[in-house]
Design a protein that fits this description.
The chain is an all-alpha fold and 132 residues long. It has one domain. The protein is 77% helix and 0% strand. It has three helices and no strands. The longest helix is centred in the middle third of the chain and has 63 residues.
Length: 132
Amino acid sequence: MANELDTPGSSIDARKSHRASRASSVGRWWTLQRRTGNPFLPVLLLAAALVLLVGSQTAGVLAERFNLNRAWDGQAEAFDQSKRLRRQLDGIATETARLARRGNQNAAKVVAELSKLGITIDPDAKPAPIPE
């Protein structure tokens, strides 16, 4: 008695039949899952997507914070230099105004030019506090 699988071409037919029954059982399982409305898989996928979204946003914000702190620290020296320069410039302007008040012609010309530009100098004013 010959086995059904021994005949030519029947082995391919048997594999196709097995695949079809397997696909049919997977299809039935999927249909059953959809009919019963089991929310586990959709909720799991939604939760995973939410965790990934929050994680990537957090990583981006932390990286941006690190870059901003690094930029702030990089500007600290330039800010200190600008404060020193401002103090020096205020001192020079105050002394120039005092010289102009005492009658120095060159200092009077400088003060006059500065006032044309809208810059007024009070030689009696205390130096303004420099913001930190």
